[in-house]
Amino acid sequence: MKSQDVRNQFLQFFKSKSHSIVSSAPMVIKDDPTLMFTNAGMNQFKEFFLGNSEPKNSRVTDTQKCLRVSGKHNDLEEVGHDTYHHTMFEMLGNWSFGDYFKKEAIQWAWELLTEVYKINPENLYVSVFEGSKDNDKLELDTEALELWKAIVPEERIIYGNKKDNFWEMGDQGPCGPCSEIHIDIRSDEEKAKTSGRELVNADHPQVVEIWNLVFMQYNRKADGSLEELPAKHIDTGMGFERLCMVLQGKQSNYETDVFTPLIREIEAVTNKEYGTSEKANIAFRVIADHVRAVAFSIADGQLPSNTGAGYVIRRILRRAIRYGFTFLDTKEPFIYKLVATLSRQIGETFPELKSQKQLCENVIREEEISFLRTLDQGLVLLENIIEEAEGKKISGKKAFELYDTYGFPIDLTALILRERGYDLDEKEFEAELKKQKDRSRAATQVTAGDWTELNSVEKDAFIGYDHLESEVKIAKYRKVENKKQGELFQIVLNKTPFYPEGGGQVGDKGYLEAENGNVVYIIDTKRENNQIIHFAKSLPKNPEATFKAVVDASQRARTAANHTATHLLHQALRKILGEHVEQKGSMVHSGYLRFDFSHFSKVSKEQLEEVEAFVNARIRENHELNEQRNIAYQDALDQGAIALFGEKYGDSVRAIRFGESMELCGGIHVKNTADIWHFKIVSEGAVASGIRRIEAITGDAVKDYFAEQDKTMDEVKTLLKNSKDPVKSISNLQEENSELKKQVESLLKDKAKSLKSDLKNEIEEVNGINFLAKLVDIDAGGIKDLAFQLDNEMDNLFLVFGTEQNGKALLSCYISKNLVAEKDLNAGTIIRELGKYIQGGGGGQPFFATAGGKNPAGLNDALQKAKEYIK
Ligand code: ATP
Ligand code: MG
C-alpha cells in the first residue's frame, strides 16, 4: 500500500464516522509562549480542550506536521541512530471535543487497524494507565481496561506507568491518561524466543508504539497541580511513517516510500551506498530526515537564524551537514539538491513544499556554504590547539571556545581528537557548557503565577475593529517575571478594544482608567492560546472595579496607515516584479513598516520608483476599506484574496479589500487609502538568499522625512554660498577638485625627479659599493619608487633611507640584486638590526626591506650605524 493511500484511508475511515477532515496547522507556532513547534496533533486544538473557544465541529480528523526537537518532546539525538524516530513526522489523529469518549475511540482504533488495514491482531499490544501514587494521586484507568478486555486477550494488555501512559504536551496544559497501541513486527523465530510483551516500551526497533489514544480530562496548572477540564475529550496520534513501515512490510521507516526516494537521491549525489556501513547508514538517515524538517519549516516561513525557532532549525540543518561531512565525505553543499525529490514525493499532500521549492533550495544551499566554511576554519583552529597541547589531554575550555565562538561541533572535535590519539577533557567541557546554559536560562526564564479569576471572557471579546474605548472588567490576571523586564502583570479583560500583536502588526498600547481617575498603563498586548493578554507594570488598586479601557489612538492611526500600505506594497510588488513575490514576513508599527518577500535579485531603482508610484496612485484613488469579517475561507480565496503560507486560518476568515488588493488579514486598517497620505520607500536590501526587505514610511513620518531632507538641503545651500543651483555648484567643485589633484600629482612627480638627481650626486663609492644613507621627506611608496628608479640608472647600490611620517619613523633598505648574491647581504637582516634604533621591527625580502618604529628621534643614529656598517 502506497503511503499516499495509507494516509487517505485513515482520513476516509474517520470521515465515515462523522469526522470532518481538517488541514494540518503550521509546524512553526507563533502565538504560544510555551511551545516553539507543533509537537503533536492536539496543539492546534488546545484552546478547545481548555474551553477558551468553541469548535465548529466536535469530531475532526487530520494529519499534522510535527517537529520534536525541543522542550518536553525532543527526539533529536535518537534520530538517525534508530529507525523509527524522526524530527519531523506526520501524526494522524482523530478528535472528539466533548463528544465521544473512550469507548468509541478504542473500538474505532481497533477496527481501523485490524479490519481496514488488516493488521494481524496477534501482533498488537495495548496498554492502560496503572495509576500513580505521587502528588497527583491518580487511579487505575478501569474504564479503558474493561473496554480493552472486551477485544484483546489479557496477556496482550499492559499496565503502564505515568511516563508511558499519562500524556502531557508540556509542563502546563491539557493532559490525561492514555492507551498506547504497540506492534511487534519481528520474525516468528524471534517471537518464539522472547515474548513481545516483554519488549513493549523497551526501545526495541521492531516492537514499537504506533498509536496513542489520549483521554483528555485534566489541565496541568503552573503550580503543577491538576484541574478537571470543563469537558472530556479524545486526542489520538498515530505515527504515519511507522504505520507505513508496518503496512509495507518493512523493518525500518527509512525503507518505506516516504523515505526511499530521498535515500536514493542521497546515494546519487554522494556516490555512496546505503547499507554498507552502520556509520554511513546513520548519516543517510539523519540527512533524509533532517532535510524534511528544514524544508518544511522554511516553507512555513521559519528561516534558519541565530535565535529562537530559527536557531533550532539551523542546528538541525548543521547536524545533517556534519554527518555528511564526517561519514559521507561531502565537502560541498548537497543537501539543497534533495529538495526537488522531497517536493516531488510529498508536494501533492503539502503543496507549500512545491511552491516554495526554490526558496528552500536557496536558503539551504547558503546555510551549507557558510557552515562548511565554519568547519574548515574550525579544523585549522583545532590543529592549532593540538599543536599547542602539552601531553595528550586537550583542555575542555579550549574545545568549548571552539564550539561556542566558532560554532564548531563538539562531537566532531571529540572524533578528530580520538582519531589522532588525544583525549578531550569532557568534564571540563560539560562544566563550561553548563555555565553558559545557566547564564542564558537565567536571562530568559519567565516565571508565571496562577491566574486569579474574577469574571468570564465574553464570546467575541475583541471589539477593537469598531472601538478605541470601552467599559470593561478584568476577567483574570496573574504576575509574571523575567530577568529582562522584571515584574509584569498579565491582564485578560472581559472584552477589549486593544489589538493583540499578530499578523506582523504590533500590539496596542493605552491605559485602563478607574472611576476615581487612577490609571494603569498597558504597555503591550499579545494573543496567547486565543486569549488577549494586556501587559502592565502594575495592577489597579481594585481589580474588581469597572474600568474604561482606552487605546492610544494616534499610535493606532499611524500603525493602521502602515498596515494598509503594506497590503498595497504587496500588491505593487506582485504587479511590478511578478506573481512569484510572496510575503515572507512583515512588521508593522507606528513608526515605519517592514516587508520581506521572495525575489531572487536586487530590486532596481527604477522598479522601486515604480512600486512607490503604484502605491501612491492607489492612495490617491481614495479606496474605501471593504471588510468582510466572517467569510468562509474558500469563499475568500475564490474572490481572489491572498492567503499566506505558514499562517493558521480558521474556516471563517476576515478579508480586507482596498480596490484590487485583497488579503486575508486580522489587522487594523485605515477607513480610506487617502488616510495614508503618502508612501515612501526608505530602504531595500537582502535579508537571506532569495529574500528581500523593503522598509517604508507613510503619513506624518513622510512629512518628517521630507522636512529633514529640506533642512539638509538648506544647509548644503548655505555651505555653497547660497547657490541657486546646488547640483551644478557641487559638480563644479568636484571638477575643480580633480583638476587640483592632477596638479598636485604632477608637482610631486617633479619633486621626486629633482630629489632623485640630488641624491644621485650624493651617492659615494665605498669598496665598489654605491652607498647612500639619508633622511628624506617622502612617503613609503615614494621611497620604494625612488630606490627602484635609481637601480635602473646605477649598479651596485646599497641604499638606506629614513623618513618621519605622522610622528612615526620608517626605515627602508635597498640592495642591488647582484650585491645580495655576491656579498651575501640581506636587507631583511640589516633592517631588523637598524629597526632597534627607532624602537620598531620589520622585514621584507633580501633586496628590499622596511621597518616602522615609534621613535623618529632614533633615525639619525640608525643611518649613522648603516654608514659604519658599510665601511
Ligand atoms: P515513543 O515512545 O516511540 O517515542 P511517544 O510516546 O513519544 O512515542 P506520542 O507522544 O504518544 O509518542 O505520539 C503519538 C505517536 O506518534 C506515537 O505512537 C508514534 O507512532 C508517533 N511518534 C512519536 N514520536 C515520533 C517521532 N519522533 N517520530 C516518528 N513518529 C513518532
Ligand atoms: Mg517519544
From TrEMBL:
Cofactor note: Binds 1 zinc ion per subunit.
Gene Ontology MF terms in the entry: alanine-tRNA ligase activity
Catalysed reactions listed for this entry: tRNA(Ala) + L-alanine + ATP = L-alanyl-tRNA(Ala) + AMP + diphosphate
Gene3D superfamilies membership: 2.40.30.130, 3.10.310.40, 3.30.54.20, Bira Bifunctional Protein, Domain 2, Threonyl-trna Synthetase, Chain A, domain 2
Coiled coil: 730-769
Record-annotated Alanyl-transfer RNA synthetases family profile domain positions: 1-708
Cofactor(s) it depends on: Zn(2+)
Residues engaged in binding Zn(2+): 563, 567, 665, 669
Ranges annotated as spanning the membrane: none
InterPro entries per the UniProt record, alphabetical: aa-tRNA-synth_II/BPL/LPL, Ala-tRNA-lgiase_IIc, Ala-tRNA-ligase_IIc_anticod-bd, Ala-tRNA-synth_IIc_core, Ala-tRNA-synth_IIc_N, Ala-tRNA_ligase, Ala_tRNA_ligase_euk/bac, DHHA1_dom
Keywords assigned by UniProt, alphabetized: Aminoacyl-tRNA synthetase, ATP-binding, Coiled coil, Cytoplasm, Ligase, Metal-binding, Nucleotide-binding, Protein biosynthesis, RNA-binding, tRNA-binding, Zinc
SMART domains per UniProt: tRNA_SAD (SM00863)
Locations listed in the record: Cytoplasm
PANTHER family: ALANINE--TRNA LIGASE, CYTOPLASMIC, ALANYL-TRNA SYNTHETASE
UniProt free text on domains: Consists of three domains; the N-terminal catalytic domain, the editing domain and the C-terminal C-Ala domain. The editing domain removes incorrectly charged amino acids, while the C-Ala domain, along with tRNA(Ala), serves as a bridge to cooperatively bring together the editing and aminoacylation centers thus stimulating deacylation of misacylated tRNAs.
Family stated for the protein in its record: Belongs to the class-II aminoacyl-tRNA synthetase family.
Role according to the record: Catalyzes the attachment of alanine to tRNA(Ala) in a two-step reaction: alanine is first activated by ATP to form Ala-AMP and then transferred to the acceptor end of tRNA(Ala). Also edits incorrectly charged Ser-tRNA(Ala) and Gly-tRNA(Ala) via its editing domain.
Protein known as: Alanine--tRNA ligase
Originating organism: Autumnicola patrickiae
